[in-house]
Amino acid sequence: MVLLVLQIISRMFEYETELLLKALVLVLCGIAVIIAGLWFEKNLSRPTLPNSKS
Q1: What is the pTM of this model?
Q2: In the chain, pLDDT over 90 holds for what percent of residues?
Q3: Helices (H), 16-44
Q4: Cβ-contact 29, 37 below 8 angstroms
Q5: 3-state SS assignment for residue 11
């Protein structure tokens, strides 16, 4: 099974290096969007409710 995966990956490197670069850029952009979203959610100011003393 491992040899089959290695052979598929080596064939991909051999023939489709452009697609590998595009896939890497797409993954990096996705990770950047996730990190930006997490940062935004962390720093989002939450509205405070007025204290109702009764």
Answers
A1: 0.54
A2: 39
A3: 17-43
A4: no
A5: helix
The whole-angstrom separation of Cα 41 and Cα 48 is 16
- For residues 11 and 35, which has the higher predicted lDDT (pLDDT)? 35
Which of 28, 24, 26, 1 lies closest to 13 in space, CA to CA?
24
**Own/partner pairs for 33-42, CB < 8 Å, 24+ apart?**
none
Total residue length of the chain: 54
- State the Cα–Cα distance between residues 9 and 20, nearest whole angstrom: 10
- Grade residue 43 by pLDDT with cuts at 50, 70 and 90: confident
Q: What's the angle, vertex CA 15, arms to CA 29 and CA 20, rounded to 5?
A: 10
